[in-house]
Amino acid sequence: MILSKRSQGSLAPARAFGRGIAAVVLALTLPASGRAGEPARGAEILRDLKSFRELGTVLHVAAHPDDENTLLITYLSRGRLCRVGYLSLTRGDGGQNVLGPEFGAALGVARTQELLAARRLDGGRQFFSRALDFGFSKDYRETLNVWDHQQVLADTVRVIRSFRPDVIVTRFSTQPGGTHGHHTASAVVALEAFKLAGDPKAFPEQLKELTPWQPKRIFVNGGGFGGGAGRTGAPPLKIQIDGTDTVSGESFGAIAGRSRSMHKTQGFGNFGGGGGGTRIESFQLLGGEPATKDIFDGVDTTWGRIAGGAEIGRLADEAISHFNPQDPAASVPAILGIRGHLAKLPAEPLVDDKRRQLDRLLADCLGLSVETVAAQAELVAGEKLSLTHTATVRATVPVRWKETRYPVGHAKLSVGLALRPNETVTKIATPTLPAATPLTQPYWLREEPTAGMFRVADGSLIGRPENPPAFPVEYVFEVGGQSLVIPDEPVAAAVAGQAERRRRLEVIAPVSVSFGSEVQLFAPGASRDVTVEVAALRADSAGSVELDVPSGWHVSPARQSFRLVKVNEKAKFAFAVTAPPQSTVATLSARVEVKGARYDTGRVEIRYAHLPLLLLQPKARLRAVSLELAIRGHEVGYLPGAGDSVAESLEQMGYKVTRLTGLDLTPERLHGLDAVVIGIRALNTRTDLAPQMPALFRYVEGGGNVIVQYNRPEGIKVSRIAPYDLRLSQERVCEELAPVTILAPEHPSLNSPNKITAADFDGWVQERGSYFPTQWDEHFTPILACSDTGEAPKSGGLLVARYGRGYFVYSGLAWFRQLPAGVPGAYRLFANLLALGK
After folding, report:
1. What would the pLDDT profile of 759-771 be if each residue is shown by its tens digit?
2. Which residues on neighbouring strands pair with residue 241, listed in sequence order?
3. Quick one: the chain helix, strand, coil %, rounded to 5?
4. Per the CATH hierarchy, to which homologous superfamily does domain 635-834 belong?
């Protein structure tokens, strides 16, 4: 059904919500002011018109979210009007989160959106490789070994061939130093890619859709924190970075500071930036032709570099000189003339990008805006969408709305209406979401990763920051005898309190299926109930649920039926699972069948005020651990820190866990607890602990047991970490399988109630631990020692002290990673720490 109505009056133009769905090799994140349909002011249009004239392109390369030099990006994009991209090899999934419990893949999704928010501020574009952030690495060679070196290199070459940079700027040196191994590796890979991107023999599979591209030169940016030496011996090039944005009047330093402050999961929410001052940035040559005055020395940044482009450059100069900010529509004939010449040029990534930019300029000059509003943000494949299409034009230039196309369904909505100035034309349509549309899930999370790389089956997605639209929309207009296509996608109202006012259309299953926890513990040969929850996302959902277990495990019953009448109705189903007689670790999976279709995904929502609502639909998986585990005591208090799921792991061990606040750290309120566990970075992030630490120490003195997990040495918000002197450091052991030496074999933490041996340190993930103390009072007993290859043993990872009648434990070991990962030895050792004094 299609309805049409024309509304008259002074309605504000609807905001277009295009997300770069044009058919290009890589989706390029566009500056906010350049999106088609936004009623840009004259000054913004003039700046974008000058940017269209500039073809100089810079690719900035580093390893993680927050590594980028936002001041350099802002200066080049907002000041020099260049095309600037930031390639972050990872999405930051191996880092720590100061805002909440998301770690791993979920944290990487949040940090992806933080980077996109940063680029909307500083004007850059965002790219990624498939590399996993697997945690801190001390050696770039280890990094490249864990990553697939050739795959990361291929991804970097792909981005270079797609984005076509004239200059590459790494944030870090290729020379090993006292920095993260990922940092050095990012520079090493960038330099290798610089040498290979122009070679047709390198990664020839890419040449089915791309062509070789050789940048002019590659630098390491020595300003800020990324300094380093080049390899060519050429003197460093120095550039003064300063200025203000011509539209907002805001200094580049202030814009860069706001951009950097978007990295809120890393604690940069209050980052103030460089203000309005100046900074000298140095550029040391790594490869390519030397430069003495500017990074673009010897690079033709005009349209003259493109065969047949000189006339386009001349016309652009003419349009700029005659542009009237008070009457942007007067420039429409000039822009149409440029479009006519541009249409004659063959397809090529840089030219295609400029075509899209010119289309946005044309729409802005017309005051032409479009919007596609969906009645629902979430649909099941095969359902009908309820879409409201709107188009508004401000200029008196004749514009005809010809049609709206739905590429994935090969359908269209015929319109054939002439738009009138300051009117909003509305069309309502109900196209069908194709039954084969895949569930929404970040493309890099659709397959199981390797230890160091995401798997991506569709090579055209590699490099993109996020998924293309689930249901792309194209508005087709006729202007001055030319066809103008504005890409868009359906959006729906956002959840209150979220950063975006709109949500992208997301494809969901009719039901979600999940386990009650990440890990479940079993005694060898024992049976336990495993609970599976089914939640209806559509009314009247009926079917069956079953549990898949690997060989050696047994489940009963084989399947169970369900019927859920209402949306959001949930039902839990218990399956009796029997573990094998030996200790082992296995993955259990759950799935449902509804109307002959099978679904095996859960539902995870990430909610932060500075980000849009993020929906993940991961596979329903449970880590089942069969192990010999004894515990003593029954009640544990847990005081959360920066966010982790250790408390849930303790409940799996059989403890009753009480969540605490700083006000609860009094002897009276802690009475009856067998132990108190302090969450990771609690002493860095909580402001309610400093007054309570003496009372916590009195609890220990009276016979209590306190376990403090790791904290960073900087930013400690308490005057005393422990009842005895204890000094934290930056020392860490990154190799998760680093050999462990037992220093105190008779200590109760290694003997009761579980006998700890070297085998209990097998199978650890990502790291041994971080921020080990290097100085401590003699009352502390170091229990273990370990070290990365080639380093001296570090014995501060686990320290235990008697204090009065109780025990105080400080541990830099990465419990927050090991326990949710189901590492058996980690459970056994932590149970011993909880049992001290029992």
Report:
1. 999 999 989 999 9
2. 279
3. 25, 30, 45
4. Class I glutamine amidotransferase (GATase) domain (3.40.50.880)
